[in-house]
């Protein structure tokens, strides 16, 4: 069965993090620049939170707060669920579904941040595997052309 390690291997090592002392405006500019929906907030190399598009909507826009004056530490999601490299993708999907989240940080045994898996990453992996399975079954049923 596929694991988080498989997804991160295919995805690459690019990971965007921010310090909690940045403003929401700075964080959203980084997110827009890299076309990402979330950044992991770190303090001293450890996961301190996650800042997502949903945080912007729920805690900035709906509360009419100024992005230039609000710090990420004031509005980030603090209760972050992490997984490890050996976590099964079916388990990752279940966590995302049950917790209604779209991003899951990946941490090592010592708590160091190793990556970030999104629902898009998981769906892309499943879609790729399905395409391969369809191809192999087609070859099996109809023979190679």
Quick summary:
With 145 residues, the chain is of the alpha+beta class.
What does this structure look like?
- The protein has 145 residues and is α+β, with helices and mostly antiparallel strands.
- The chain has a single domain (4-142), classed as CBS-domain (Roll).
- It is built from six helices and five strands.
- It has helices spanning 4-11, 24-34, 53-61, 72-75, 89-99, 119-142; strands spanning 17-19, 38-43, 46-52, 103-107, 113-118.
- The strands form two sheets. It has a three-stranded mixed sheet with strand order 1-2-3. It has a two-stranded antiparallel ribbon with strand order 4-5.
- A hairpin with a 2-residue loop joins strand 2 and strand 3 (46-52).
- The radius of gyration is 18 Å and the shape is elongated.
- 17% of the residues are buried.
- The mean pLDDT is 92.
Task: Identify the notable features of this structure and list them briefly.
single chain; 145 residues; alpha+beta; CBS-domain; 3-stranded mixed beta sheet; two-stranded antiparallel ribbon; 6 helices
